[in-house]
Amino acid sequence: MEMAAEPVGGAVPPPALPGPPRFRGPRLARRSVLAGALLAVLALTAAFAGALGLRDPVAQPDPVRLSSQPPSAAYPLGTDPFSRDVLSRVIYGGRVSLGVAALAVAVAMLIGTAYGAVAGQAGRRTDAVMMRAVDAFLSIPRILLVMALLALWGGVSLPALVALLGLTSWFGVSRLVRAEVLALRERDFVIAARALGVSRLAILARHLLPNIVTPLLVSVTLVARNVILLEAGLSFLGIGVQQPTPSWGSIIRDGAEQVGQHWWISFFPGLTIALTVMALDALGDGLREALDPRQLPRP
Asked: Using CA atoms, how far apart are residues 90 and 76, in angstroms rounded to an integer?
């Protein structure tokens, strides 16, 4: 029986070292492009719904004969219990749901960025007070806070709903911006600018904010996802977007009582919400991978 040849001198060869991690950028880039394309299609379809020749989303042509009709050639997504076209309501509901989310995200990003930047640039005591206030708000379940406020008001308009969602969505953004500012303010270029007498506001605008664009872009997708889900949940409970204005959550509510028999009423808006949320998650992952220099392939 042949014996395996031993290395000269009895030396044991070193184990093979693992190679560098495989770069996943191209795959994630393709996925993020598809996600962005899907979001663009949804947004453009909702924005130009009036030019598509759709039926009136609140019209009830025949509540007796056309009530809860399954998908057909005349009604591709069926009708709801009030004989309204589900396809038209889903598309017009996207205008409401996506519009509310976009405006609420803009409010949240503006407030969160300003608050976090001030906290990161302020002194230690001011920073501690500001962050303890944020921690106090974060300790309250957001859904309960929003539901309590809406219950007290007894129904709100769309501008008030946008303001409420935006004013309760900036806490995490402020913590992210503060952490980035604290990490950047001790860099050499910031210290040099401070030594040259540049004001704090100018340092913030010229040196700090441009360097936190990447995490802010990723945060936009996360905040938008949460706002869409929260608005859909509130509208489903009847305390968000009020009837007869369609939104994805209120359309799901229209078919919730008979979802086993008339599944199409709740299925299609629910599918649209799921696709939108997954697209936002994929877009956020792609942006993080593409804009983070640590994800670049090694030479």
From this structure: 12
pLDDT value of residue 264: 93
Q: Exposed, middle or buried, 122 (CB in 10 Å: 0-12/13-18/19+)?
A: middle
Residue 204, by phi and psi: left (phi above 0), alpha (psi -120 to 50) or beta? Answer: alpha
Tokens 């007796």 — which residue? 64
pTM of the model: 0.83
Tell me the per-residue pLDDT of 174-220, one tens digit each, with 9 for 90 and over: 999 999 888 887 787 778 877 877 777 788 778 788 888 888 988 99
DSSP 71: S
Which residues, at least 6 apart from 81, have a Cβ–Cβ distance to it below 8 Å?
63, 67, 68, 254, 255, 258, 262, 265
pLDDT band at 44 (very low <50, low <70, confident <90, very high): very high
Is 95 in contact with 47 (CB distance < 8 Å)?
yes
- Predicted pLDDT of residue 184: 84
Paired tokens of 200:
């704090």
The residue written with tokens 């001011």 in the block is 126
- What does the block give as tokens for 115? 């608050």
Task: Identify the CA nearest to 228 among candidates 43, 77, 33.
Answer: 43
Q: State the Cα–Cα distance between residues 229 and 247, nearest whole angstrom.
A: 12
d(CA 118, CA 16): 50
Q: Would you state the pLDDT for residue 183?
A: 85
Using CB atoms within 10 Å of the CB of residue 20, give its burial: 0 to 12 exposed, 13 to 18 middle, 19+ buried. Answer: exposed
Residue 52 in contact with residue 76, Cβ under 8 Å? no
DSSP state at residue 143: H
**Residue 78, SS3 per DSSP:** coil
Residue 219 host element (H or E): helix 213-236
CB 117 within 8 A of CB 209: yes
